[in-house]
Write a structure and sequence with these properties.
- This protein starts with a helix and ends with a helix.
- The protein has 13 helices and no strands.
- The protein has about 325 residues and is mainly α.
- The protein has one domain.
- The relative contact order is 0.13.
Amino acid sequence: MLANVLYVIGNTFAYILSNFLPILLCVIFYTLAERKAMAAIQRRLGPSYITKHGILQPLADGLKALFKESIIPKRSDKGLFLLAPCIVLVIGFGNWGLIPYAPNEFYNYLNMKNFSDISISMFLLLAISSISVYGVILAGWASNSKYSFLGSIRSTAQMLSYEISLTVIIIPLILCNQTLNLKEIVYAQSALWNIWILWPLAIIFFIISLAETNRAPFDLPEAEAEIVAGYNIEYSGMLFAMFFLAEYSSMILISALNVIFFWGGWWIGFEESIASALAFSIKIAIYTFLFVLVRAALPRYRYDQLMYIGYMNILPISLALVAFISSIVVIVLHV
């Protein structure tokens, strides 16, 4: 009996390491790449003291957060205060289990479980991602701070407003690829990437990606002059680091979705596991650099401008494109 329990625990631990440790390392060193890129764009040095070229700066920051005291406000709801970052972090990293990195041979080679071959993996991923809103609401409410609460309300309204357009944008993709499976969407682009025929959707989806991940120029939760850093202002130490890691994990995740939806995912003309995974990683790296480039180049919008763009510009254009593309699909494919 004890041997079986230890076997299950060992397999679970090995699964966590093989699936989520690479994602954690990517998130950690993406912060270094962003700081270096921002420094180059703005003619600064960036991290340069912790080892050569500051390569281990993210690890130093992680250790600092680990040993820093996590202060819980006296009159806060301690249970919800601790639960909020856990929800955001679990969802931010858990969604990676549904992303197809490469053909099945890649998973077999690394002895990893593949959960991406679910028939409704796209729908499941979007449904799980929407739950992260609850973590933001709980963080602002449980802190018992007016600034945190206002920040959570603003962030939640922003995420919900752009999530409507995000859902609408998905409809033409489903119609054109005739599937809700992310892996089959990749295979459907073996002859022609979606970007060449659905490029207006790709542009809108990228804009929505910026708003959904609270990135500049839509980083209103971090409008320091107005709400003092937003819903996570009362968090410190590892609790704050959990929000930070979840945010960057979501950025890389939505970059992966951009690549899967419009740039052929890991498909490179043939099914070779290592080369496919490498090509997928390069495409994601290009998209994540675009996030950095936009942050460095564009100023932050006001909150009223943000909501106006979402409801008065993005949503009507998305609905018009859905109607237009759906009509073409019905005529051509006789769906």
